[in-house]
Every structure is written in C-alpha cells, then in structure tokens.
Specification:
The complex is a heterodimer of chains A (about 450) and B (about 450). Chain A is an alpha/beta fold and about 450 residues long. Chain A folds into 3 domains: about 35-125, Orthogonal Bundle (Fumarate Reductase Iron-sulfur Protein, Chain B, domain 2); about 145-240 and about 380-445, 3-Layer(bba) Sandwich (FAD/NAD(P)-binding domain), CATH 3.50.50; about 240-375, FAD/NAD(P)-binding domain (3-Layer(bba) Sandwich). Helix content of chain A is about 35%, strand content about 20%. In chain A, the strands form 6 sheets. A 5-stranded parallel sheet of chain A has the order 4-3-2-5-19, with helices on both faces. A 5-stranded parallel sheet of chain A has the order 7-15-9-10-11. Chain A has a 3-stranded antiparallel sheet with strand order 12-13-14, with no helix packed on it. Chain A is globular. Chain B has 2 domains: about 5-325, Aldolase class I (TIM Barrel); about 330-435, Alpha-Beta Plaits (2-Layer Sandwich), CATH 3.30.70.20. Helix content of chain B is about 25%, strand content about 20%. Chain B has 12 helices and 22 strands. In chain B, strands 3-4-7-8-9-10-15-16 form an 8-stranded parallel β-barrel, surrounded by 7 helices. A 4-stranded antiparallel sheet of chain B has the order 5-6-14-11, with no helix packed on it. In chain B, helix 8 links the parallel strand 15 (about 260) and strand 16. Classes of the chains: A alpha/beta (about 450), B alpha/beta (about 450). The interface of A and B includes residues 34, 38, 50 and 109 of A.
C-alpha cells in the first residue's frame, strides 16, 4: 500500500507528484500586466512616502510604481535595483506586511495596502532575462575579499564592482545565495530563482566567486588581508541554539534550518522524509517555514509551539495566518520540558508558561504532543567568526558604516550587529558597507 | 418614485434620457432594445440624402483615453453618418415609432447646404411619424470636408438659413445640434434661434487626436499608417459641454431657447447637472457605447431617488435652477474669505496636500516629523487645490470665515457685504470693466 498522510512514523512519498507540485508552487502568482496596472493605479504617490521610510533599503516605491503605471517597468526595475540589487528576492521574501505595506497610507485608509511587494516582483522579474542594467566603473586596482555569498556579501560585491574594485567572494557551500538558496521556504522562491538572481547579479563582472571555501582551514583572515585591500564578512549565523531540554539528543530532534535546506535542495520533494506527527518549536520565520513545509510535504499533524504569546511572535501575523491556513496548529505560551521516546523521539512534553513583564515561568501543568520529528527553530548563533573581532550580543560589532573593531574589516547581514535578520536588511548593510569601503579605498588614493 | 416624464419642446418622453444620434441609434434592432431597456427617447443616427450610401473606413473608427483600471473616460470617433440606405432607415423609423408611440423619436439630418436637398428630405422624414428632427451641424470629421456638419455649424449665417428652410418645409419641431469647435457658442445658438429653431442640442464632438503610436509615429486610431482627427466625447468632455450649455442658458438673448444637453453624461448626476444649468433633457452616447443600454436604469433610479430626497415631483424643478448662480468672474464676491481645514482624524498622512501646496501654491500647509499636516491660515488663500488632491473625501474642506473675524493672511476684518471686482479699488478701469462690449 502506498504511503499517505496517515502512514505512521517518518516516511517519504506521502503525497502524489501533482500534490507536491501544487503545494510548492508560487505563494503569490506573478501579477499579469493588467493586474499590475490596476495595482499600480492604487498608489497615491505620497509625498516623502511612509512606505519608503519603512523599507530598509529605502527603495523609491512611489516612483517605481508610477513607472509601472506608465508602461515603463524596466525603469521601475532600475529604480528598485539602484537601492536594492536583490529587489527580486526581497519582493518574494520580505515581510512586506510589517515593512512597506504596513506603512502604506491605503493600509491606514482601507486596511488594504498597495501590493508593493508584488509590484516590485513584477518590475524586477522583467529584468532577469535582459542585459544587466549596471556597469563597472574603471578598474581602481583595489581588491576586496568578501566572505559569504549570501544577500549581504552579494550586495556588497555588486556595489564594489560598480565602483570599479576587483572582488573575490569566498563561500563555504557549493552554491551562492546564502539563506536565499538554503534557508527560505521553497514556495517563496520557485523555479530556482535564487540561483537565477545570483547569476544575474554577478553578470556585472569584476566579481570572482570561490565556492567550497570556508573560513578557517586553509582560508584565514590573515591570508585574505595579505592579498586584499579590504575584507567584508557576510558569514551569517552558522550555529543553532539548543533547546536545553531533556531528551534533546534523541533521534529525529533536528535543526529546522537543516530541514529547510533539505527541502530546498531536494530534486524530488517526494523523497524528503517527513513524520506523520511533526512538532516545530519556535516563533520566527524559520519555525513557520519549517512547519508549513512539513504540512505541504504531507505530515498529518503539524504543531508549532511558541513559548510566548501571539503578539510577541517574530513571525508576522501574515506568516502566522499562512501557517494556520495550511493546517498548522499554533500553540502559544508553552515551553518544551522533555522529549520522550526510546532512542527516537515519540512525543514532546510541554509546560504552559506565564509571561510576567517579559519574564517567563513554566507552570506545573504539562501536556504531551506526539512527535515523529521535532524541529528546533529557536534562533541561530554566530559560528566561526574570526578571532580578535569585538562581539556584541553574540554578533560581530560594527559601527554605522559596517566597520568592525578591525579597521580593515567590515561586516553585515545576520552575523553583524544592527540588523533584523532579514534579507532586505542584509542587502542594505552589504550595500552601505561597500560604499564605506569604497570611500576608504579611494581616499587612500 | 418621482415622475420623470419630460416634455421637451412639446415632445413627451417617459424620462429625460435620450440616446444621442450616434452608432447605437443606427438601426431598428438597436432602437427597439434601447426603448425596452428604458431610454426615454432616441435621436436616430444622422440620415443623408438619397443616393449611393456613405462609405466608412474599414479600420479602427474609435480611439480612447483611459483613467485608472482602464476605465474609458474619453472616446474619439471617425465614423460618418449612417451608411445604410435612406429608405431602409425611414421604414425602420416608421415601424419603431408606430410600436413606441410614447417614446421620443427624433431624426438627425445632414444633407448638402442647398434648399432643394432639404426640401426633398423633410417630407419623407415627416411621413415616418417622427416627433422631430435634429440638424447635424456638428460632425467634425469627413462630412465637414464636404461642406456639411461642422462646416455649417461654424458659420452662423448657414445655420440660420438651413434652420429657416426646415421650419418652412416641415411642421416638425427643429433641434439644431451645435458644434463646440468654435470660439463663442452663443453665436451659433443665436443664429439657430433667428432661423426659428425650437431648440438647440449641444455639444457635438470636439476635434481630437486621442494618442500617437510611438512605434509607428501615427495618430490613433490608425488606418494603414495614417490617422485623421476625429470627434471627442465621453466623460472627459463634460466640463466643456456644461460651460457651453450654461453660456446659452444665461445669455439674455438665448435664455428662453430650449437646450438638449449632450457631452459626457454617464450617470444620473451628470444628467441632473446639465439640467440644472438649463438643459430640458439630456442625450447620452458614450456611456451606452461603453456599458450597453442598461446604464439608463441607474440614471432613472438615481434621478428618482435624488428628486424624492429633495421632495421634487417634476424634472422642471431641476431645469435651469443653477443658471442664476452661473456668473462671470467679475461678479464673484471678493469679500468671501475661506480657509482650508484638515480633519486630522480622517487624514491618512499621504502628504499630497503638502506637496501640492508647497510646490504649486502658497506654502500654507506644514508637515511635522510625524506627518501631521496643518493649514497655516496666515498663508492660505483657499485655492482648493489641497481639497482636490486629497484622496480622502471630506478630509479637507473649505470653511468660510465669519464676518467680523480677522483674515490672518491679510490682517483685515472679513466684511459681511458683497463686493466684486468692478468696484474694487485696485481695478484700474473702475466701473467700466463690468460693461462687456456689445456684439453689434
């Protein structure tokens, strides 16, 4: 008998191939030309627009929407890319409901913001198969090393290349894109968009990427310093926080980020192993991405458990509603006490929590949830940062220009202080660090 | 429900909504369905003289201007008068009128500017039982090049002459349809009146090129690479039409000349506005071409509701009611002082009022760091631009300052008395200014 959603334990092929295709299709279908015009017509072209202020990369949103409405989407794309070279991915993964669309005055007026994210995707998608819109300045003779080919590193590289510097990116993995490629739900970036975007971004020229080159072994900061005029670190957060609960070491208690990566990299989603009963612990975007994709892979019961209340969840309301609409059950105010099972996880015992002025206490009341798989999504930690750099709150400390305590090293993205662990903030930090590096290198003459 | 029955120059119709002479009124099949849909009257598409049928282009006849969401706000056409045989049209008119005796049936006519031509066509039209005729002196394309349509409408002497022939050789009421492609609409209206016209109808379409194709560099609509100007109509022309209707209604000479209002009437409200400015009824074309005959149902229900709400029982209570209030600029009260007022609870903080006032007008709106927009009364001239650009209805309003208060902008006391430019101390021509030069 073939597997289905009720098949016990952990298994594959719970669904039919067409179910997988449907479940993992685009979360928002791209706007058609007409839909884009209708959506663009709703923009009021606000003065000193609140949506722009809400965008970490400060894209001129009213301008690009007006450009769409006058039939010049390529100009709109250029407006976007001027500020955010990964505007294509940000259009897909940004929590717009807490950024630009929250600021939109039509959200204030009617509770229905202009579809800024989808319009941004409309404009930027059109540029992906056209010649790269930017070109390099004359070669400066300066060389910059970037560690990490994620959003921060790529944005930094692109801006440096525009300024005429020679850039080499070192990345530990076999592919670029960072979390865009490995860490975001598949339905937010279909058809290999992350790789398409990386290739498109690199087509400006002047950027060499060395994959399978992790920092630490043969590649050290000292080596890089010897060969380059500046260094940018966009190494992300490589570690995962522990549950610190009894039974955490049991089989099938897994890191959500690894699961998400497996799903993203699977050539056949039917081969991804998923439990009948899945428990996800955490309240951020990673938790939602893991929980929703578990459900989409055919898990029968998916429960997301967060230790605090709904209003404290870092996943936006939109994300929470997306999860529940797909059949994920969200339990608030509960913390794991122990994972039970003989060798492998069978269930998780939770205690109800009370949040008093931000201080959590477990009550003595507990409940059990069956779990073939437990995904931990309670935050990531900095891993493998070079020695000697000053840290702050577990991240590499940077000043307003992205410069670390070492004057020759800049950092940005999730590994550095100051961001919101979003693709869009990583892009902004990479871009701004590039401008700071450029200023430093050109001032040196 | 209010009684919408209208008597226009003796022609009765169930309501004041007539279909204008245009493509929708070209044949029996359409006109019957229009009456069934609720239209009160129809002006049959213009008939020409007996002879070889009119030839139309075989490419696009229409061009359009769009508002948001591809809403058609302006339409341009290069279609000519009916291209069907005269006899066929006459038979159909007769048949429809026989079956719809209580609906208005007007026949639009355009024949060469020769007495014999008019003398020939008038009896055959009268024989159909039609309620009246409308003289097409307005069509701006094609026919005008042949000395008809707007070519007649632009020469008051011709209007007067042809109108006189029509009154002489026919017992039917005569409506003269005016072209807006002139400088002063009162001249052709007065000519029509001198010729004995029972009414004028206006406006016909406006000379227009709707757009240019920037790949082929041809005006649109494009026929095999070339374009010609057409006639513009639809919601976009309404303000021009309203003004022209008002010009005739408030002129002493033509004040009693009945008017059939035409030009962008799309809703009951548009119709009521035309009527308030002096139109006895309205004619509609673009709205029906865009949305179909059914739109008249909204016009009927809307006008009825409005009249009920205002305790009106007859359309005559609307007709002409705004005319006494339509004045020249020099008549306006310069002692009236208003200031913009922003309702902070309704404000959605888009900042358009600020941008408009800052970049266009008087820097009379300030913006705080947290996006609170406030009117500075000492700078506000009450221009109304902020009201118009605000996307929220009633968020910004113009409030009149009470007499006796101080206008912070000028530091002067607001006067209770009416005073206009003609008596203003800054007027170099003094009292002379309010005397307009006579025509003759």
């Amino acid at each position: 008998m073939p597997n289905d959603i009720q098949t016990s334990g952990i298994t594959d092929h719970r669904l039919t191939p067409s179910d997988y295709a449907d479940n993992f299709s685009d979360l928002h279908a791209p706007l058609s030309d007409h839909e884009a015009l209708v959506a663009a017509d709703r923009c009021y072209f606000c003065h000193d627009a609140p949506c722009m202020d809400a965008c970490p990369t400060t894209i001129d949103i009213p301008l690009f929407i007006r450009q769409i409405s006058t039939g010049t989407a390529d100009s709109a794309a250029r407006t976007i890319f001027n500020q955010n070279i990964m505007g294509g991915m940000c259009a897909r993964v940004c929590p717009t409901e807490t950024l630009c669309e929250e600021g939109c005055v039509r959200e204030t007026a009617e509770g229905k913001p202009v579809l800024i994210g989808q319009l941004q995707r409309y404009a930027t998608d059109g540029m992906m198969d056209k010649p790269h819109p930017f070109s390099r300045a004359a070669d400066t003779g300066k060389k910059v090393a970037i560690v990490g080919a994620g959003p921060a590193g790529l944005a930094c590289a692109h801006r440096l290349a525009m300024n005429g510097h020679a850039v080499t990116i070192f990345d530990a993995r076999a592919k670029g894109g960072g979390l865009n490629e490995f860490g975001i739900a598949a339905y937010k970036s279909v058809d290999g968009f992350a790789q398409t975007e990386v290739e498109w971004l690199l087509s400006i020229g002047g950027i060499t990427v060395k994959y399978n080159s992790p920092l630490g072994k043969s590649l050290t900061i000292d080596n890089l310093k010897a060969d380059h005029d500046a260094i940018f670190l966009g190494i992300g957060l490589g570690g995962v926080n522990a549950l610190r609960s009894e039974g955490e070491e049991k089989n099938n208690v897994l890191d959500a980020v690894d699961f998400i990566e497996n799903v993203r990299q699977a050539s056949d989603l039917g081969t991804v192993q998923i439990g009948r009963d899945v428990v996800v612990i955490g309240g951020g975007m990673t938790a939602v991405d893991a929980a929703v994709q578990s459900k989409l892979l055919g898990a029968n019961n998916v429960t997301m458990v967060y230790r605090r209340g709904k209003d404290r969840m870092s996943a936006s309301l939109f994300e929470q509603e997306l999860a529940t609409s797909k059949g994920v059950r969200i339990i608030y105010n509960a913390a794991p006490v122990r994972v039970t099972g003989n060798g492998a996880a069978r269930a998780v015992e939770f205690a109800h929590t009370q949040d008093v002025n931000g201080k959590l206490t477990n009550s003595t009341e507990v409940f059990m949830i069956s779990a073939d798989q437990v995904f931990k999504a309670i935050g990531q930690t900095l891993n493998g940062a070079p020695d000697g750099l000053e840290l702050d709150g577990g991240k590499i400390k940077v000043n307003e220009f992205g410069q670390t305590s070492d004057a020759g090293i800049w950092a940005g993205g999730d590994c550095a202080t100051g961001g919101d662990d979003l693709t869009v903030t990583a892009v902004a930090e990479g871009r701004d660090a590039a401008e700071a590096i450029n200023k430093t290198l050109t001032a040196e003459g | 429900m209010a009684d919408l029955t209208t008597n226009f120059i003796g022609i009765k119709s169930p309501n004041p909504f007539w279909l204008a002479s245009a493509p929708p009124t070209d044949k029996e099949y359409n006109v019957r369905r229009a009456f069934e849909a609720g239209w009160g009257g129809v002006v049959w598409k213009t008939l020409g003289e007996e002879g070889p049928p009119i030839v139309n282009v075989n490419g696009p006849r229409y061009g359009a201007i769009y508002g948001g969401d591809r809403r058609l706000i302006g339409l341009n056409n290069i279609e000519l008068i009916t291209d069907r045989p005269l006899q066929q049209n006459l038979q159909e008119i007769k048949a429809v009128k026989r079956d719809y005796p209580n609906h208005a049936m007007i026949v639009s006519l355009m024949v060469p500017c020769e007495e014999e031509a008019w003398k020939a066509i008038l009896p055959v039209v009268e024989e159909t039982g039609a309620d009246g005729i409308e003289l097409n002196f307005g069509c701006p394309h094609g026919m005008a090049e042949r000395g008809m349509g707007a070519a007649v409408g632009q020469v008051p002497e011709y209007i007067e002459m042809v109108t006189r022939w029509c009154k002489q050789y026919s017992r039917m009421p005569v409506i003269v349809k005016l072209t807006p492609n002139i400088t002063d609409i009162r001249m052709p209206a007065e000519a029509a009146m001198r010729g004995g016209a029972d009414a004028v109808s206006l406006i016909n379409t406006i000379n227009s090129i709707t757009s240019v194709n920037l790949d082929t560099f041809a005006p649109e609509p494009t026929i095999d690479g070339w374009g010609a100007h057409g006639g513009y109509c639809g919601p976009a022309v309404k303000p021009i039409a309203l003004n022209m209707v008002a010009e005739i209604a408030r002129s002493e000479v033509t004040a009693d000349l009945p008017i059939s209002g035409i030009g962008g009437v799309s809703t009951w409200r548009d119709a009521a506005e035309f009527m308030a400015l002096g139109a006895g009824n309205v004619q509609v074309c673009t709205a029906a071409m865009t949305y179909g005959f059914k739109v008249v149902q909204e016009m009927i229900s809307g006008l009825s509701q409005y009249m009920d709400e205002h305790e009106m029982t007859s359309t005559s209570e609307i007709i002409g009611r705004a005319v006494p209030n339509a004045k020249d600029w020099q008549d306006l009260n310069l002692n009236y002082i208003a200031k913009a007022k922003i309702d902070q609870d309704a404000c959605i903080k888009c900042g358009r009022c600020f941008a408009a006032c800052e970049d266009t007008s008087h820097q009379a709106i300030t913006m705080s760091d947290d996006r609170v927009f406030e009117v500075q009364d000492d700078e506000c001239v009450a221009c109304n631009l902020c009201v118009l650009v605000c996307p929220v209805e009633n968020c910004i309003s113009m409030e009149a300052q009470a007499a006796g208060t101080i206008d912070e902008r000028t530091g002067k006391v607001v006067e209770a008395d009416y005073a206009n430019w003609t008596t203003h101390p800054n007027n170099p021509t003094g009292a002379m200014c309010n005397v307009l030069p006579d025509d003759d």
